[in-house]
């Protein structure tokens, strides 16, 4: 049996490795237009800020490593045609001197084509010094350009924009982050929690402009200024971190059904064409809270979907669960994370919710080095927890993961408030901050019922 995978990102390579884990004989070919494979795009901002020494360090494997596992990787090759009637695809292969067209047949095709950066339709995005951050190759270019320049404007205050802005600030540039919406990290945090992160970033020397879209980028060959709302900002470089768009052209060509944003798949990661699977940033997933289709552009989602697709292709049965989009990030010393729905998103979807909050410490009050921790928990009126956001200078990820489990298992705030957590003063408070937030939610629900 022959499996061809388009894309060597987290989703494509996870599918390839997992197929090999369960089956030694399947012929596996991965085709990618990139020259680097198996690197972590998530780490690009951390190379800029110097936490990771160099881009080479974030490349975890080379094509030769996969060949040892009998997985054939074709790099610098772009698939441009898929025929699901003939079970064949065509790709351009650049052998260093010329482009040649090659054809490949498959029994199963896996589309793991990821996403591209979305660039708003404004003047000036073609100028030298304007970058969209997505691949390691762009990472190299951003670093090289930043080393010779002083003023950067980062457009978009989502995770990627903020992490990149901090990286450039650590390189010594003056950095302004601009965001069209009135808050940063709008997808994962409510405004009150986002303002804690914004305050931290401003204290670290980053300027943040909210509530204004980018209007234009000005320059003669290279970028000189960026117009944000009424403001004209000096800029030697502009990073466009303005969202992503799933790459669905090949799936459409193959006749796969497309949803509102991306490729539609069932819980087996199978598209509407039975021998074509799709995984990663190019697919739509099911939101566990709202019950609607959504996107989950996360490395963790891509890897988990690759495992599911692989199991189904080799004949084992596996299902991908609806997502809670658990995320965590670290900017400077500050960690922040979220899982499930924000209050804003729940209300937008017509849900009635209450929130429980706590502001506490990460260790006993008297123990040196205790840090402030902020927790916000979102619950329905019957007490079911549907979301949580946490900000602190340590131990955010493990609490987000605990909350992910609690939400997935439909735990209520009163059940969580009664849970047994570990305690020792150098590592925790006697009552954990998430228990305190759950207690606050219970108290608010009780008060609401009395009204
Ligand atoms: C700067 C940055 C920071 C991030 N930080 C985090 C984080 O902290 N945590 C987290 O969970 N996620 C993070 N992400 C998101 C995460 O990296 C992505 O969700 C994940 O990489 C998606 O994997 P994928 O395989 O679906 O897509 P991609 O990694 O985009 O891979 C798609 C592949 O398909 C190839 N391809 C597409 N079309 C063709 C074609 N026609 N022919 C040949 N090849 C093709 C591309 O070249 C590419 O190799 C971050 C992303 C970025 C950019």
Whole-number radius of gyration? Answer: 23 Å
The total number of structural domains is 3
- The best one-word shape is globular
Question: Major sheet: size, sense and barrel closure?
Answer: 5 strands, parallel
**Sequence stretches where pLDDT stays below 50 over 5 or more residues:** none
SSE map:
Blueprint: E1 2-6, H1 10-22, E2 27-31, H2 44-48, H3 63-68, E3 71-74, E4 77-83, E5 88-94, E6 99-105, E7 108-111, E8 115-117, E9 130-132, H4 136-147, E10 151-155, H5 159-170, E11 174-179, H6 191-203, E12 207-210, E13 214-220, E14 222-228, E15 231-234, E16 237-240, E17 244-246, H7 249-253, E18 276-278, E19 285-286, E20 293-294, H8 299-313, E21 327-331, E22 334-340, H9 343-348, E23 353-361, E24 372-380, E25 385-392, H10 396-408, H11 413-417, H12 433-450
Parallel strand pairs: 1-2, 1-7, 2-3, 7-18, 9-16, 10-11, 10-16, 11-12
Antiparallel strand pairs: 4-5, 5-6, 8-17, 13-14, 14-15, 19-20, 21-22, 22-25, 23-24, 24-25
Helix pairs in contact: 1-8
Explain the overall architecture.
With 451 residues, the protein is of the alpha/beta class. It has three domains: 2-37 and 57-116 and 245-313, FAD/NAD(P)-binding domain; 119-242, 3-Layer(bba) Sandwich (FAD/NAD(P)-binding domain); 327-450, FAD/NAD(P)-binding domain. Helix content is 27%, strand content 29%. A five-stranded parallel sheet has the order 3-2-1-7-18. It has a five-stranded parallel sheet with strand order 9-16-10-11-12, with helices on one face. Helix 1 (10-22) runs parallel beside helix 8 (299-313).
